[in-house]
């Protein structure tokens, strides 16, 4: 990895798979270097996206410094959504902008400590219910379907 970053920083081939590998190997500084120094939009896009994902996993596994990291994570996903929205992820076959927007929605609305979004549906007996009717109570939601 050191040789790759040192000798091939200007390569366009340092896109998705290399950035994923750097995130998996916990090479945060290399991702930051690619994000800031690569002359290729696709490399900067994947470095930014993978860095945000890496930091998100760090917060999930080690809550120390959560507030500082959460602000960075949100800013990185915003950067992906704003600057690299049209770059397609080769595995997911979706634009990074869509993937980053989904991550931002989760960060802003679905993580522990946030108020749950309104959910409406029918209970097991067919009665209409709203999640907000149970605010302040412990609630177990189970989603399932027959396709």
Q: Averaging pLDDT over every residue, what do you get?
A: 91
Strand order of the largest sheet: 1-2
- Quote the beta fraction: 5-15%
Q: Would you count the extended β strands for me?
A: 4
Describe the main β-sheet briefly.
Answer: 2 strands, antiparallel
Relative helix content: 40-55%
Structural class: mainly alpha
Euclidean distance between termini CA atoms: 45 Å
Describe what is shown at a glance:
The protein has 147 residues and is mainly α.
Key features of this structure:
147 residues; mainly alpha; two-stranded antiparallel sheet; 6 helices; elongated
Describe what this molecule looks like in 3D:
- With 147 residues, the protein is mainly alpha-helical.
- It has one domain.
- Helices cover 54% and strands 7% of the residues.
- Helix 3 (28-37) runs antiparallel to helix 4 and helix 4 (41-61) packs antiparallel against helix 5.
- The mean pLDDT is 91.
Secondary structure layout:
Blueprint: H1 2-8, H2 16-24, H3 28-37, H4 41-61, H5 66-83, E1 88-89, E2 94-95, H6 96-109, E3 120-122, E4 128-130
Antiparallel strand pairs: 1-2, 3-4
């Amino acid at each position: 990895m050191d040789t790759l970053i040192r000798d091939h920083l200007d390569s366009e081939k340092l896109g998705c798979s290399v950035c994923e590998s750097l995130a998996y190997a916990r090479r945060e500084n290399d991702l930051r270097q690619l994000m800031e120094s690569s002359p290729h939009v696709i490399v900067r896009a994947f470095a930014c996206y993978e860095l945000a994902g890496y930091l998100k996993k760090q917060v999930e596994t080690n809550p120390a410094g959560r507030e500082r990291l959460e602000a960075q994570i949100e800013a990185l996903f915003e950067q992906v959504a704003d600057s690299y929205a049209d770059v397609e992820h080769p595995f997911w076959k979706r634009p990074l902008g869509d993937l980053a927007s989904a991550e931002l929605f989760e960060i802003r609305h679905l993580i522990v400590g946030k108020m749950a979004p309104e959910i409406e549906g029918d209970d097991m007996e067919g009665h209409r219910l709203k999640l907000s009717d149970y605010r302040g109570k412990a609630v177990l939601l189970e989603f399932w379907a027959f396709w």
